[in-house]
Amino acid sequence: FAGKNINLVSAEDALMLNTKVHRAVSVFQFYVQPWLAELVGSTLFIFTGCMSVIENPLDTGSLQPALAHGLALGIVIALFGEISGGHFNPAVSVSVCLIGGLNVILLLPYITAQLCGGLIGASLAKVISPPNNYFNTSGGAFNTVKDSDQVGPAVVAEMVMTLFLTMSVCMGAVNGKTRTLLAPFCIGLTITADVLAGGLISGACMNPARAFGPAAVAHYWTYHWIYWVGPMAGAVLTGTLIRLMLGDEKIRLLLK
Questions:
Q1: pLDDT of res. 23
Q2: How many domains does the chain have?
Q3: Is 242 part of any domain?
Q4: What local confidence, expressed as pLDDT, does residue 13 receive?
Q5: What is the pLDDT of residues 119-144, one digit of tens each?
Q6: What is the CATH number of the domain that holds 59?
Q7: Percentage of the chain lying above the pLDDT 90 cut
């Protein structure tokens, strides 16, 4: 009987150990791994975006930044989308959270990871860029708006372009009725189209983390608030439209 009791205790200990390991793995997969994916993906995306502006030797206008941002975002979404959802943008996280695609507990950690990724990406761009190029482009920060007359159009442009982007994310990757495997491709193309359309009006940011990183590293804060207010307004509008009218039966609040 003594031997049987020892075996029984050992089995219980093994079960408790397995339970603890399972909980640790669950915490890692639910909290830590998505945070790391958002951090790494935001770093790579924002580094590429900053460099596409800083190193534009042929002065191609919006073409080079549009292609670089669109391609980079499509790639990081394809790489990390199954881990974190592939947001890399506080406005995207807000819109996805509003339609129930992101647990509200993760919203602040996601935004923190994206802002940290912006700082790291912009810092890496500064380290490897020639000083003259870096200074002339404000480190890839958004310097399109020069005076108060441009503020209104810039805010509206950021709101509408972010609406387009967040709508592509929510409808292409979250909404069950319209979800598609081509979502990374569609989202990347949306970024490219937005930059080509609105780059000369506001710089076509659509991403507070993309604005924050180079602004902090280059100490360029002129009209920085535009790139928070516009994108966040677009994200809220997207969430409202999908919740009220465009979402599937699981997401839509009315006329189910």
A1: 79
A2: 1
A3: yes
A4: 65
A5: 999 999 999 999 999 999 999 999 99
A6: 1.20.1080.10
A7: 83
